[in-house]
């Protein structure tokens, strides 16, 4: 009887140890609710029995346009894990693409001021260059707005995106799409 109890306690202790080992202890920074890293952007585990020899990474999906301005195409980036993955994703969008089959959608010189997530809505704030340097055109504006919204809604905690310019809501970026309210993901413009 005593051996069975000892064996049962050992099994329980082993189970608790495995459960605790699976937790990374990461918690969002204060005021950063909703910026949790999605499962596909989680830290990559190191091979069994080895210590990580480099910084942990996460995968972020950013959308760029096809050359014919018809669709958005996801581009996967592997970047160091950080506490602001949504901001990092928008910075990657601003940087453009290195894929020669795709084109960036952001106007030149646009600066990101802030990304904040509250109640499943991402509030992404750009400087006024977003409007001033926009080349216009309905297709360009659809792809620009779609790229911002689709990039941010890749995160499970973000369901909608409110685009801000200079900290304020704007009616439109180039006169073709109403961006005065939070926008949902646009699957139909993603090339399958």
UniProtKB/TrEMBL annotation:
Record keyword Signal present: yes
Which positions make up the signal peptide? 1-21
Query: Superkingdom of the source?
Result: Bacteria
| Region annotation Disordered: where it falls in the sequence | 29-55
Kindly give the PROSITE patterns that the UniProt entry links to this protein. Answer: PROKAR_LIPOPROTEIN
Show the SMART domains listed in the entry: Germane (SM00909)
User: Which residue ranges run through the membrane?
Assistant: none
User: Mind listing the UniProt keywords for this protein, alphabetically?
Assistant: Signal
* Domain GerMN residues, every copy: 86-174
Entry keyword annotation includes Secreted: no
Protein known as: Sporulation and spore germination
């Amino acid at each position: 009887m005593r051996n069975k109890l000892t064996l049962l306690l050992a099994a329980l202790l082993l189970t608790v140890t495995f459960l605790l080992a699976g937790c990374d202890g990461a918690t969002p920074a204060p005021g950063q609710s909703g910026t949790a890293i999605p499962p596909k952007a989680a830290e990559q585990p190191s091979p069994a029995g080895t210590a990580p020899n480099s910084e942990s990474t996460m995968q972020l999906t950013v959308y760029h346009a096809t050359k014919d301005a018809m669709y958005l195409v996801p581009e996967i980036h592997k970047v160091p894990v950080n506490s602001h993955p949504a901001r990092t994703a928008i910075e990657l969008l601003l940087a453009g693409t290195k894929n020669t089959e795709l084109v960036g959608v952001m106007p030149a010189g646009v600066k990101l001021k802030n990304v904040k997530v509250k109640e499943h809505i991402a509030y992404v704030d750009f400087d006024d260059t977003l409007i001033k340097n926009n080349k216009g055109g309905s297709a360009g504006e659809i792809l620009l707005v779609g790229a911002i919204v689709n990039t941010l809604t890749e995160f499970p905690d973000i369901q909608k995106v409110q685009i801000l310019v200079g900290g304020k809501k704007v009616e439109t970026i180039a006169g073709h799409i109403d961006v005065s309210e939070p926008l949902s993901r646009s699957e139909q413009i993603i090339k399958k």
